[in-house]
Design goal:
The complex is a heterodimer of chains A (645) and B (210). Chain A contains 21 helices and two strands. Chain A is mainly alpha-helical and 645 residues long. Chain A has a two-stranded antiparallel ribbon with strand order 1-2. In chain A, α3 runs antiparallel to α4, α5 runs antiparallel to α6 and α5 runs parallel beside α19. With 210 residues, chain B is mostly helical. Chain B contains seven helices and no strands. In chain B, α3 packs antiparallel against α6, α3 packs parallel to α7 and α4 runs antiparallel to α7. Chain B is elongated. Classes of the chains: A mainly alpha (645), B mainly alpha (210).
Chain lengths: 645, 210
Amino acid sequence: MTTLEERKAAEAAVGEQLEPIWEESGGLRGWFTTVDHKKIGRRYMVTAGLFFTVAGLEAVVMRTQLARAQLDVVSPDLYNQLFTLHGTTMIFFFATPMLFGFGNYLFPLMLGARDMAFPRLNAFGYWAFASAGLLMTSSLLFGAAPNGGWFAYVPLNEEQYLPGAGMDVYSLGLLLLGISTTVGGINFIVTALTMRAPGMSLNRVPVFVWALVVTSFMVVFALPPLNVANLMLFLDRRYGFHFFDPSAGGDPILWQHLFWLFGHPDVYIIVLPALGIVSAIVPTFSRRPIAAYPLIVLATIGTGVISFGVWVHHMFATGLPQLSLSFFSAASLIVTIPSGIQYFSWLMTIVLGRLVVRTPMLWILGFLVVFVAGGVTGVMFAVVPFDQQTTDSYFIVAHFHYVLFGGAVFPIVAGIYYWFGKFTGRMLSEKLGRWSFWLVFVGFNATFFPMHVVGLLGMPRRNYTYQSGLGWDGLNLVETIGAYVLTVGLALTLFNIARALRSGPAAPENPWGGDTLEWATASPPQDYNFPVVPTVHSLHPMWDEKTLATMVRDEDDPERTLTDGKQALRTSDLDGVPEHVVELPEETVVPLVTAGGLFVATLALVLGAPVVAASGGLLTVVGLVVWHWPRAARQEAQEAQEAQA
Amino acid sequence: MSAPATVTSAATRPRAVAREVPAGRRPGWWGMVLTLVTDVAAFAALLAAYFYVRFVTTGADWPPGDIADPKLLKAWIMTALLVTSSAPLVFADLGIKKGRRGRLLVGVGLTLLLGAAFLYVQYSEYTEKLTTEFTPQTNAYGSLFFVITGFHGLHVVLGVLTMLVVFVAGATGRITRKHHAVVRIAGLYWHTVGAVWVFIFASLYLAAQL
């Protein structure tokens, strides 16, 4: 299984023609101009990993502060900045960008395409994300980090109660990131709709792709309320507007509605693509197709739809009308059904298959245990009286770490072990991976399980310290020790990655015997992904011989080799019937400049320099005009002239 | 494969096929549709906030305090300008499909002028309101009014700029019978911005009289 014969033959036939067309500049220049989805995807993952590390270390400092009662490791004000930045970074700058990184890398490979539908938009999205994250993370160094909690409730977060630049960094940083996430989502949807390999009808699309497409649709509908809310917060704080100010006709509850109308779908925006990773890994290591494919796809869509009707369960303690509480309580109970369907689909796949526990699968098994525990406490919050008892206690901190660490971090690490060979051409060490898993699994549960108990014992979240003798001391110490074990476990995976990059064994093309098309490419893939665009014959193209055979059969067909230029195939939305060839853009610095303008504008607004901000905005507009300037007609005329000459 | 391509076979090569009018929707068209979906969702969130503050927070007295009901004359003119402006753009789009560059330029030019006229009336309305009635800092109603209409005005500014770009590109022969997707896609944006205005007009001006 080291080299795929079909790929080798296709490569030999047209590789030489494709290579010069797809090659990009190397070095520093290439760094700024690339539009290759693989480089951008890798960058997304590395950058998000960096933010994860920083935000993780912030948590370790907090746990150190809470190891014993009344310690003085950090000041209360710094503690406020730490928990706000930890939450904001993990939710916005780690989870979604990391999963978008997986998506950027894997979408065209899984779909049998040569790149995303909008390669320049992809680069733009990365630069906007990276610069927003840089602004957010580095604000800590200037003592200007957000400090009002990651959901920034008003009136606390209004200027008069929380002066300073912190919450302006928050609102504007999230607006900039919102643009990046939205264009990323749109790119995923359009790619999945228009760029699939011939024959890949909708019922042959991998579950991971489905999951990310549903996520992207959720992004398209859920981010606007957040962006609108952040715009309002910024105007309230800086320019004396009154959206959330009750003394001038505004309403603080409006913030909560707008924020959670985004916030609850966002839980699924984070978790669904991670569940997509699970759906990609489980069948491979169960050695059989995923059970109930149509059901798992429908359940994913169902989760996406229902998640827009549950946001008020974050506001059960706010004092809303009884009727509204009942409705949202019922909806919050119902949303567990589609998640349950996904769960049973994985369990049945494992039970009906023949389980092989390699490292990626080990992390998935850990996920199955941890995530179900988070799900169970989640159902408890749907019940109004229970929610009102435990809200803002450590019980809720325990719950959402089981959901988000369990539901996103475990699958993400599993995904890293699973696809690392494809991403880099090197294999990670299985042994180190197992050590890392057990340390993380034990450390995670030691950190977060006791939080359920201290929460029920009444310990409130977000306090920088606590009194001794309330029955919390021993459990808090266990949590802190657990956090250190967890850190060592994650550091071991980081070490594993560094070691593999330097001296890891070369990765075969399909190391695990996976079923989706990314395994039909080289490890790492060529710039053009597929020398011959395959024609897909089933949901498991790597497990049916017909699909692979088309890569040899079509090696003389110009409609499948596309050697005339940087081209991809546009296929029909539902059935994947080839329609026409589309030209893809060459490398360019325009996305960087366009995103740079937005970054300048954001930074200038934080620093209170509207004129500079306007010139940044102008730069973005100029960038957009250059970007979209119609060129095709002239090029065609020129080529026609050359052909005549 | 390595033999030099003759003129006949060149027409059947993918590059040539790629340049023909596409059978399905272009990726760019889908991209604009989704951008507009998320954009309309933002306007929906803004209008929801407006109605929330009006009905849940404030109650009967609307607009609150001493602020009079919004005057309608200028708003009717703005509505007429923006709704009318879509027609010449459709005329331009259908024209360039047949390769008629004159129709493209006249249509886009008219849309451009009508859009600019809209902005001029909005500017005069803003001046009047800011100097004699209320500002965004007066109260939540003022904040909502100016942010909603201002966010929409920004869309019209971007739309007028887009029309300018399309006009220049058309005048310099960059938009042809074969390559006119940009007109269709820019039109999609313009029509949506016009449709959104109708909702804003109905919510902020007409419904405020009730």
